[in-house]
């Protein structure tokens, strides 16, 4: 199995747009699935994380996250949120397109570009899943992209349908024969 890269992140971002664009007129103040956040704040969180991953990879700090944050104004509409996610995702994919595979940047340890691509995909797709639970469309994480995320971030994941396993790994679903998860973390570091 190959590691994820910028094209995979582009596909995840396209999936987000396809899933959420038809629901711009919905009430984004509804809860986002199992999260404590609403749909609006969850979308802002996606953009924040994509921006953070881009700045980490561009600056390559080796000991901490850079002391900066993306602020999305509360008055941002759902359409604005999707544009902001597009911009943040564009920054990360542009950095990934040119990143030396040997570079390491801090994410709770040294993380390579494929780790940042996988984390960007995971944040995008998992939080799209959360938002769609709030807005009630039928949408699921694409299996091929879920498989890449599992390969890179959850190497000890059990076998099964990749989308269902990814949701279980992140405490968002049940998996027959496995107890539900209330805590979890992924492994993005790679030396």
Question: Can you characterise this structure?
Answer:
The chain is an all-alpha fold. The protein is built from six helices and two strands, in the order H-H-H-E-E-H-H-H. It has a single domain (6-139), classed as dinb family like domain (Four Helix Bundle (Hemerythrin (Met), subunit A), Up-down Bundle), CATH 1.20.120.450. The chain has helices at 6-20, 39-59, 78-98, 113-135, 143-153, 162-169; strands at residues 105-106, 110-111. A two-stranded antiparallel ribbon has the order 1-2. Strand 1 (105-106) and strand 2 form a beta hairpin. The longest helix has 23 residues, at 113-135. It is globular and about 45 Å long. Residues 9-131 form the Mycothiol-dependent maleylpyruvate isomerase metal-binding domain. It comes from Catellatospora coxensis.
Give me a quick take on this structure.
With 191 residues, the protein is mainly alpha-helical. It has helices at residues 6-20, 39-59, 78-98, 113-135, 143-153, 162-169, and strands spanning 105-106, 110-111.
Give keywords:
single chain; 191 residues; mainly alpha; Four Helix Bundle (Hemerythrin (Met), subunit A); two-stranded antiparallel ribbon; 2 strands; 52% helix; globular; Mycothiol-dependent maleylpyruvate isomerase metal-binding domain-containing protein; MDMPI_metal-binding; metal ion binding
